[in-house]
Amino acid sequence: MGKVNNKGSLKRANYIKRSWMLYLMLLLPMIFFGVFRYVPMTNIVIAFKDYNMFRGVWESPWAGAKWFAQAFSSRDFYNALRNTLWLNLLDLVIGFPAPVILAILLNEVTSTGYKKLTQTIVYLPHFLSWIIISGIASQLFAPGGGMINIMLGKAGIGPIDFLMKNELWVGTYVGLGVWREAGWGTIIYLAAITGINPEVYEAAEVDGAGRFGKIWHVTLPGLRPTIVVLLIMNLGRILGSEFDRPYTMANPKVMQVADVISTMVYRVGIRSFQFSYTAAIGLFQSVICVIFLVAANQLAKKVGDRGIW
Known about the structure:
With about 300 residues, the chain is mostly helical. The chain is built from 14 helices and no strands.
């Protein structure tokens, strides 16, 4: 027994001796995440305190669950929660399949030059900030002189106020999100497609599969692990929301559907200095996101996929 333990220790020592540079390289990102990600998490106690910026986090008095109770009794909080879930769900249902479909279509293009040109065009919107995109949208969809309404007017339709009516604003919000991110999302799926063994396509063709048959029986099953992983990650963000997109696209007439948790936290926490209240909302949001992430991962494992961990 002692000899086995000595052999195991010697093996580990030799492994560390060979790989110590890799561990040294790994040390820097671990320090980064520890200092800038985990140490700041200690300030999460603000959600349970009557935070006073002059007294500091640890000197401020404890308030228990006071701020959570205030959030759960607030109509504005439930409105922001509903809007966050609804907009993220629409993004997931409409936006998630878009890069998959686009990647499959690009993979079927035989002209290399046309394929590269298309990829470049569909990637470009990702590099535009939401401030620029919202400015473009306000010009395109303006009811008076916007290009979209001019074209609709020539067709005998409109003008349509896309950015001032709740339902139309939601559609515009989701559509612009798909336009911005669909091309960028194809990068991962195209990389996954290139990893599929070409012999599988040849075997499917020998068995009589046409172009659509090869997509259905070869390409999509080959993409399935990638789709599952990205779907789990997206479900983990179902209650999260980026700030710049709703903030720049919103206006007073559509705040009933445009006010999400991130904009509410900014409005109430940063501008009104209610830090403990918004910290409680942020903590609730993070906990729910973790629950969704873990549940989606476990569900993926139950249906036969690997999941994230």
